[in-house]
Structures are given as C-alpha cells and as structure tokens.
Design goal:
The complex is a heterodimer of chains A (445) and B (410).
Chain A lengths: L3 H13 L5 H10 L1 H9 L7 H12 L6 H14 L3 H13 L4 H4 L2 H13 L5 H9 L2 H6 L13 H10 L8 H10 L3 E4 L2 E4 L9 E3 L2 E3 L3 H9 L2 H15 L6 H13 L4 H10 L16 H12 L9 H6 L22 H16 L22 H13 L5 H11 L1 E2 L5 E2 L5 H17 L7
Antiparallel strand pairs in A: 1-2, 3-4, 5-6
Helix pairs in contact in A: 1-2, 1-3, 3-16, 6-8, 9-13, 11-12, 14-15, 15-16, 17-19, 19-22, 20-21, 20-22
Chain B lengths: L6 H5 L2 H4 L9 H10 L10 E7 L9 E2 L4 H6 L11 E2 L5 E2 L7 H5 L3 E8 L7 H10 L11 H9 L6 E4 L15 E3 L16 H14 L7 H25 L12 H9 L6 E6 L8 H25 L6 E6 L20 E6 L6 E3 L8 E2 L2 E2 L3 E2 H12 L4 H5 L13
Parallel strand pairs in B: 1-8, 1-9, 5-11, 5-14, 6-7, 6-8
Antiparallel strand pairs in B: 2-4, 3-4, 5-10, 9-10, 12-13
Classes of the chains: A mainly alpha (445), B alpha/beta (410).
Chain lengths: 445, 410
Amino acid sequence: MRTDAERTIAHLYRRAGFGLSPAELRAAAARGFRACVEDLLHPEKDDDPLAAALERLEGEVFDLTNLEDAQAWWIYRILHTARPLEEKMTLFWHGHFATGAGKVEDVGLMVRQNELFRAHALGRFADLLAAVARDPAMLLFLDGARSTKGKPNENFPRELLELFTLGRGGYAETDIRELARLFTGWKVREGEAAFEPKDHDGSPKTLFGETRPWKPEEVVERLAEDPATARRLAGKIVRFFVADEGLPELETEVARKFLDADGDMRETLRAVFLSPHFVSARALRAKIKGPVEFVVGAIRELGVAVPVRRLPGPTARMGQALFNPPTVKGWDGGLAWVNTATLFERANFANTLVTYRARKTDGRPFEPEAWVGRDADAAKVVSTFLDALLDGEAPPGTRAALEGYLQMKGEKGILGPFRPTKAGLDGKVRGLVRLILSSPEYQLA
Amino acid sequence: MRRGVDRREFLRGAFAAVGVGAAAPSLFARALRSQESRVATDPGGRILVVVQLSGGNDGLNTLVPYADDLYHKARPTLRVDPKDVLRLDDRAGLHPSLAPLRARYDKGEVAVVQGVGYPNPDRSHFRSMEIWHTARVEGPLPRAGWLGRFADAASGPPTLLVHFGSPLPYALEREAGTALAFDGPDAFSMAGDRRFPQDRDEQLAAFRKICDCGGGPASYAEVVRATAASALASAEEVKECVAKGSNKANYPAGQRLPLVARMIGGGMRTRIYYATVYGFDTHANQKGLHGNLLGQFASSVDAFFQDLEAIGRAKDVVLLAFSEFGRRVAENGSGGTDHGTAGPVFLVGPRVKGGLIGEPPNLADLVDGDPKFGIDFRSVYASVLRDGLGADPVAALGGEFAPVPLFAPA
C-alpha cells in the first residue's frame, strides 16, 4: 500500500515531471516533498549525463533533420532525463509558442527552437520572449522573416498579442498594425536570424498610448511584464500543472508572484508547487494526461523500455504530434484530449507496451515475473499494479472487473482462480496491466 | 479588460454533460441505449457534410471579382487573371483550380453564397472559429456547438455526428454525450495480444465492465468513462459500415471524403460528417499553396458526389464548406494576405438551388481594409438545418434567423 506521503510525491512528479517508477518513488519520498520541489526547480545543481549521451546519439542514431527522428529524440530525452521539470517546461513553452514543422520546413530549426525553450525553461519570461521573437523557426512560422518596411506582415504581431502575451481583449487591431511595422527587417539566412536595417520601419509608432520610435526589445519587455500577460500565463501554468479547469485563487497568487519576481519562472513555479492548492482535492486527479505524459508516464512507471522509434506515431495519433501542434494556439489540453478515437489509441498503445517481448539492447521489456511473486493470488496481483499505476486508488467496480479478468480457464474450459504459472504471467498479467493503463482513472494525472 | 474566452471554459460544463450522480443510470448502459435509439433516426435520412477550410480562406481569390478594378489594384501579384477565371456572371467567377466543380455548378448543384460573415468581425482565428462553431456572436458561450445542439434535439447516438481526427471541433460538442471522433477503421477497436488471441474477448469484457462501473461523483474519470463506453458501443457498427461501402471515383491523396462516401454507402446512420482541411492561413507565398488547396477541395468534392450518385444517395446529401474569415483585400508584402472578414460559403448537392447567391463584396466600401458582410452566416445555417436536414433551426441556433433560400423546392 502506498502511504499518503508517497501519493503526494507521486502527484508532484506526475505534474512537474513524467511519473516515477516504484523504486524512484521510494527514494524521492525519503527525501521529502520540499526537497523534491527544490530538486525539480534546480536542474543545474547536477551534471546532465543525458546531454553528453545525446550528443553521441545525434547523427548516429537520430537524424535531426528528419521529423520522426526529432520527435523520437525529444521523447527519448523526456524518458531518460534527470531534469524532469526542465523537460516539462520545454513542453509547456512548445505549447505556448506553438510552432509547426509543417510550415517551417526545416526540422533542424525546430530542434534549435526546442533547445531554446530548454535553455530558458526556468528563466525569465521576458528573456525567452525576446529570444523567441528572433528565433529562426518562429520567424519562418509566423512570417516575420518576410515582413519589411512598407510591407509589414501581421501574422507574428497578432499572435504575439493574442496568444503569447496579453490575450484577447488586451489590445486593439491598430496595435497589431503598429507592431507589424515595428517587427520589420528580420530575415532568416542560412538558418540564422539576421536583421536588415534598410527593411526596418524605424518611424514612430503609437503603442501603449505613446507615439515615438519604439525599439522592438523595449516593446517585448513591456509586453512580458504587463499584468494582462501575468494573468494569462498564470492561468495557463495553473491549468498545465494543477487543474484543467483552472483554480482562480491560485491563478491570482501565481500572477502576483510572476510580477513580483520579474517574470522569473523558477520563482513562479515554486509558488505553484508549494501552494496548499497544489495538493488540494481540487488538484488531485484533476487533469487529463496529455499523450506525451500518458506514453512516457506508462513507460516510466512500469520501469520498462521499448524502442523509442515506436513512440512518436501513437503519440501523434493520440493528438500530440511534437513539433507539429495543430495550430499556433498549441494544444487545448484537458478534455480536448479525450474522444472515441484517442481513447482507442491509448488502449492500443497500452497493448503494444505490455506485449512487447523482444530483448533488444535498448531496454528491458515488461516482465510480469519481476512484479508477481510465486504465491500471488488475483487480489494481490491487482493491488500490486494498482499501487504502481494508480496510487492504489481504483473504484471497487474496476478492482472487481480486474480480478474477474485474471481468472484462468482450466481443463474443459472451466474458469478457475489465477495462478502465477507461465500461462498466467504471460497471458493474463500483461492483459491486466493493459486494462489498468486503458482505464478511465489512469487517463488522469 | 475582458478575459479571453477559451475552449477550456466551455469544457467546464462537461461534468454536468455526462449527467453523473447518484440517480444517473449506468453510463455504458446509457451509451448502449442511445445506440439502440439510432433506429429512430431514419437510415435514409438527410445528411450534412461539413468541410471546414481552416486558417481563413482567401474569399477574393476563391470567388474572384474579376471585373472590379479595385480587386486588381489591391492584388498586384496575387490577382487571378480575368482570362483564367471560370466566369459565373459578368462580375464574379471561380478560381481556375475549382474547375472540377464547374460542371456541377452548371447543372445547378453548387450554390456560392457571397459575402458571408457577421457583425463586428473578429480577426482572431480562434475567436472567429468559435463564433462560427457556436453561432453566437456575443455573450457567454454555450457548452454545445450548433451541430451538437442539432444532435441534442434529435437525441441521437454518438454516431449521429462523426468528426475525422482530433480534437473534436466545438461545433460538434453536445450538451449530453459525445460526437464520434474517428480516424479510420484500423485503429477503431481494441487490439489484443497476438500471442493469446482468445484473450482479447476476455479483455474486452473486462474493459466493458470497467467502463460500466461509473456513477461516482462528477469527475474527469466519469467523462472519460462515458466516452470510452461510446467508443466501445460504436466500434462494430463503424467497422462494418466502412467495410461494406466502397469508392469508385478518384480522389486526391489524404482526403476524408472517400471515407465519408464509404460510411454512407455502408449504411451508417450518421447525419453529420465533419472534416477539417488545414493550410488556408496564407500570410505568405499564397499563390501556389492556395491554388493547390482549392484544387484538392474541388476534385474531392466532385469525386465524393460521383460516389454518392453511383449508390443513389447523392440526393440525401448536402455539403457545406466554410472558413472562419476571408482575407484582407490588399495583399501584403510577402506574396500573401493577412486576416480579413466576410467570405464565400459553398453548398453542394442535387437538392441545392445552385448559382451565385447574395451580392459580391463592395471593394469601394471597406472597414479597416476589409469588406462588410452581406449575409449573416446564421441565415445560411438556418437554411441548411431547415431545408438541408429537415430540422428545427431555432433549437440549434438559439434564435430566429431568416433562412437564405438555398434549396430547390422539393
């Protein structure tokens, strides 16, 4: 049985990370909640062995000019990282500054943007925003690279105001047209952002009620620290980390912290995780897992490995194609993940995961005998996996259905009790785990 | 400052929507029962196919005001040459890539409704799409979209509404229950362990029990449970129908309409099919991109009706194609166009009263560089609901909108 302290830590790592294996959970629980929060907030404290390992894999294993490879590369990184919050925030920023490889047509630039999000994952929002405004992938995606003096393009300025900072209602159409003139002159040349002064419109613009020759960096700074931006980001952070429906009291606290801390995301997130709201009944199991969380979480919680190249396809069919969000608004998340097609996709990924039996060099597949003792009965087996995957919390009907499923056909086809024989382990325990991973409760973070 | 309205906010009502609580009947039983109630919907009934042209289709280069000098002045590089335009009258004509629809237009089966929009146009993709999906131009957002409300009024099963791909569009969100999201027949069922094929049915039975043991307090788990129950209840019907139907016509690659033709031919009782086509947000390099998109749209719509004609179902079907807005009259400096306002809507089908409907946009009378709308999109919806589907438009639209005459008298 899991203790309450273990359940709270498991919750923390489902939200701030991508789930823990039973052994990792025990170790984390021994350190305590606050220490775990600080570990998560300070990825730089330890070396990042993964970075070196990945450098070797780049080129040899992953061709980062190919979309599926880039997706597999990132999922590999998420799976194996020692810095889960850094990856979680990288995913958050990818959804916030949603850029699609389909239009950028240069996967290498998408990967570079991903590294940008990672570098700024827990930094100051204004610094990230300034970097995104001159990021080559973004310049191509929202046509900033084609916006010139006398011929401004409104694509980037509109989304900058509507999606990246203030949000709808915080600006007028005239602001977009003024900003379009301001963000002229940028190009992408040989994969690098370049500024061409002769294509920049340096004439005065009316912004924030003031007419003068504004500089783009001043405007970015003003937008990043605007209270409307703080409210919008606080709302997104709370829905991403705490509760899909939002939690207005916490959003107010988080917005205030964001402004007080000059947009520092580490401080902002500390306020999220240490708030009593974070572990309240309104937060626990109050989120639908996104596809990456579902796929990576299942693999991590079972402590198994599958060929990473098999992961981008199902993840995309569940509705989350990395490097290709559906629109510049990113993924809606929450219940938008759930529909009849994506639930079949999740149940079928679970099947693939637990029935993968090949012993290749890249990992240990799911092995029922490593989990189930020789004396285990149905109730015990079900409890073992409900503990590992659902913190031991499942409706009685689910438990009964799972125990019923474990019954085994004996001679003459008569149903008898589960026994941990070869047939029981290979033919039933895999199915049991698949059912738990497919259950409604497991879709919740 | 008004807070941005978010898709998530209408999903907040979702707990209420599955009706969970002490008195709620078992969700799986309910999903199954509503599955049975499909008998109540006429299998030969009228069908609406919606094609959403996402991103803001450039209306002025779709239905080209080729005789208007202001058009040519505003579009020095993007304008369609009058000699290439498929002329419909002495003022307007179709982009040449829409040629596959020309014969149908001449037969009177294509209505092109000009200048469709709404008051105080919003140039945000997301807000404007929300307006088209909910048929509400202001005020609080309803939980259900306009087609979801049609389905609620018809109290039909999940298979009443089918969307291809994820996520479901707001238009199909319902007060109670869900629309079916479907990507293709292969993935729409529970696979099993290949080493133990006989175990698949045992897993399926257990999964049905898990999805049937709801009735707990309102929670996300209950919403997931109800959706999974709908998926299980629909899987067989969907698979059978897709297998039974077939395509004889040739479609461009990657289209959803051939699947719709197979589902109709196979006997699905779906009344609304909804497919989304992306790529119309042409801020740059518009010329080739937009022509390709229009060409694929036109040839797949034509092939779709060929298939329907071959099985004698064309008369039951009307296809509606719309976009969240048109684009700015003046082209930008990137060989593209920025977000605009009103644009043309297409209706296709033998029962449609074909032709050019409404007035062409007046390019001499612009507001912020965009034309004023002529026809309210809700009047188009009202016509589609009343005359296309034989439904009550007021229930689905939440108000009275004078239907535009778009259908031939029966």
